[in-house]
Each structure stands twice: as C-alpha cells, then as structure tokens.
Amino acid sequence: xMTLTDENIKEKYILVGISPDxxxxxxxxxxxxxxxxxxxxxxxxxTQRLDYPDPATYVGSGKAYEIKSLIYLHDATGVICDxxxxxxxxxxxxxxxxxxxIDRTIxxxxxxxxxxxxxxxxxxxxxxxxxxxxxxxxxLGKELSRQGGGIGTRGPGETRLESDRRRIQKRISxxxxxxxxxxxxxxxxxxxxxxxxxxxxxVIGYTNAGKSTLLNRLTGAGVLAEDMLFATLDPTTRVCxxxxxxNILLTDTVGFINKLPHNLIDAFKSTLEEVEFADILLHxxxxxxxxxxxxxxxxxxxxxxxxxxxxxVITALNKIDKLDPEIKDSSRxxxxxxxxxxxxxxxxxxxxxxxxxxxxxxxxxEDQIHVxxxxxxxxxxxxxxxxxxxxxxxxxxxxxxxxxxxxxxxAYVGKYDKNIITVDENLL
Length: 428
Ligand SMILES: Nc1nc2c(ncn2[C@@H]2O[C@H](COP(=O)(O)OP(=O)(O)OP(=O)(O)O)[C@@H](O)[C@H]2O)c(=O)[nH]1
Ligand SMILES: [Mg+2]
Hints:
Layout: E1 12-19, H1 26-37, E2 41-49, H2 61-74, E3 78-81, H3 87-97, E4 100-103, H4 104-115, H5 119-135, H6 137-148, H7 154-196, E5 200-205, H8 211-219, E6 236-241, E7 247-252, H9 262-267, H10 269-276, E8 280-286, H11 292-305, E9 313-318, H12 325-329, E10 341-344, H13 353-366, E11 368-375, H14 380-389, E12 391-397, E13 402-409, H15 412-415, E14 420-423
Parallel strand pairs: 1-2, 1-3, 3-4, 5-7, 5-8, 8-9, 9-10
Antiparallel strand pairs: 6-7, 11-13, 11-14, 12-13
Helix pairs in contact: 1-4, 3-6, 4-5, 5-7, 6-7
Bound molecules: guanosine-5'-triphosphate (GTP) and magnesium ion (MG).
Guanosine-5'-triphosphate is lined by residues 205, 207-213, 225-227, 229-232, 255, 318-319, 321-322, 346-348.
C-alpha cells in the first residue's frame, strides 16, 4: 500500500471526541489510526468533557468556536467527529466551522470501500454507504441547495433532495436484490460443507489483532495481513489438518471495532453468517495493545449484536512476542473470562500455535463420540466422507466389510445408525 508523505497528504483533520473523562481518550488514538489507514493526517485532537453528545453541535457551540480557531492555527482542511453525527449536527457544525465535517462512520465506510476487493464486498459496502446517505440527506441537503446559490435555491434544493432520495432508494433496492442472491449462494455452499461434515472454525477478533497472520501461519493461505485497520473484508476459508489427521475449515473474517457502524453490520450480515454457523470461534486478541480489555468487550458486544451466542470460544492471546518478558511471565496475565479456553500465542514467531490447534482438536472431541462401525464395500463413499469429517483411529479392510473405529460428530449418530456396532458410552 502506498504510504503518504507529509507533503502529499492533502487532507488534514482535527479529531474531535467527547468523553466523560478528558484525561485520556484512546478512542481518538484509534480514530487517528483509522485516518492514517485512509491516507489522511490528524493535526490536532480535541476532547470535550461530556457524557452525551450535544444534540445541536456534538461538542456544544462554545467548544465548536474553539475548534474553529484551531482550524486556522493548524491549517486544517476538515474536522472529524468520533461518533456518528446526526444530519442536524453535521449541518450546524459545517455552518460554524466552514470546513468539511465528517464522522467516524463515514471514515470507516471509506476504508471499507477502498479495501473491498470482491464483488460481494463492494456491494455490501455500497449498501452501507447508501443507507448512510439516505439517513443523512438532510444534513447534506443544505449543501446541495446552497450550491445553486441566490434566489429560489430553496425550491430546487428541496426538489434535488427528493430526487436524491428516490435515486438512493432505488439503488438500495437493487443492492438488496444482489445481497439476497449472494446469501443464497453462500447458503448452498454452507449446506454442501455441512453435508461433508467438516467442522468450521471462524477466526474472529478486533481489527489488526492478527487474524489473517494466524490463518496464514496455520494454513499457508497467503491472505493479506498488514499493519492497518480492516485489511480483511472478504472471508477466506482454508483447510487445516489437525495432528490426528482430521481436517477443519478455518475462516478468516472482517475485524470488529468499537462503534462499528450498524449499517455495516447489517450489510455484512451474509458474510458474517460464517461466524454464526461456525462450530468453534477462534478469538484472536492483540495482547500487546493497551486497550486489550476494551477490545475483547467490543468483540463480545458485536457477537451479541450478530446473535452469535453459546458457541465454544478459544481465545488466542496473540503477539506475545511483543511483550516484555517480565510482563509475559507475570501471573497477572489477561484472561478472557467469556472463553472456555485461553492460550498465549504468536502468529509471528509460531510460538503456541501447535497448542492452539490441539485445543481446537480437544473442543471438537467434546462434540464427538467414539464408535466402532462396519461398512459394506459398496459404501466406500461414506467411508471417504468420514475420513474428511471425523478422526479415524482404525480403518480395517476386512474380508466382508470395512471396519472403522473413530470419533465422529455427535450429529452423525442418526445418519450412520445402521453402521454403528458399538458406542463408547463412557464418552457420551
Ligand atoms: N509482533 C507480532 N505482530 C503480529 C503478530 N500477528 C500479527 N502481527 C502483525 O499485526 C498486523 C496485523 O495483522 P493482520 O493479520 O493483518 O491482522 P487482522 O486481525 O487480520 O486485521 P484486519 O484484517 O485488518 O482486521 C500485521 O502487521 C502483522 O504482521 C504477532 O504474533 N506478533
Ligand atoms: Mg485480516
């Protein structure tokens, strides 16, 4: 990715946030990282002490005028607010500040738009952008009517607003059709996978936690992994072989972030269904980030929003190579209390990776059942399917049948009812 030098960064922003505590506003640091990913520069950060945004101007009008003087001081080209603004807030702030006013949502949408590579990703991002536009037409409307200038602009401005609304609604309905179509294709693929019975592990976590690096480490997938936010938008699924020989599917997913726009979650629902239908969630955490606890909280809140509950979670505390040995060894190691299993790892150096795979195997085993089975030689296809989905311990080609001893998914008991000779009750 192109890096911008100070000279060719055209857009310079003042970052504005609200917080009940102005001592430290890490959310603004994250906003700066987002801005950097988008290729623009932060020139100054301002935090207003408020519990809730001011409905008219987000920060209150006094603070807004203070920001106006900072614009001149830093020669800023715009102001970016750390929360999604209402149309009225955008309008009022633009009136006072007389520079471009954008919000966190627009910035995230912009990054998503430039990182989307597949058709599906592009359509999903456009859907979120159009929905944002539709809900903010009134904020942008004044700008539109102003462009005409002079007498009578209000009329044409309003008309323009109406025609814009209709145009956007039409586009949203076309995009909805495409998304529904893609959802169907995804469903068919998923059904196929479910029939094959290969367990799916979804790699989830905060953006930049190291999900793609971990997937690459585990499968040699060659997925883009970069030190930027939202490098991955499109889910990549790769096969990974566990030490018992059993295969699993690992799916990389889009990263989560604090204040992830709702429209984006909505638009990415079909992609995020990969998470909903996974057998296990592999939660990757950047343990070297000072905000690690808040990041984990955001991940679980997003999962709740996606209605993904009651799934086994394995948490990999990643990037331990970046930690001071002292901190690393101290007993005060972070725990993910919501995960059934927490391990330390480094996708970078490979430390702890084998343990992560073994843990996946262990969790899968909890949902498997130990059986002895007999297949006729004409059922070779079933044996082949079992090889992909199960952990086979003995496969014996006897004179009159094929004898199998294996751990099979519990859900298979009904399917192979006629083939099962014994079930290990102790493991039930
Ligand atoms: N030191 C160190 N760096 C790591 C480790 N794992 C990942 N990284 C780095 O962290 C950055 C982000 O890694 P990615 O794998 O792209 O993270 P991601 O979670 O896929 O991020 P998004 O797709 O943007 O949500 C990259 O620069 C990686 O090289 C690790 O274990 N140690
Ligand atoms: Mg990634």
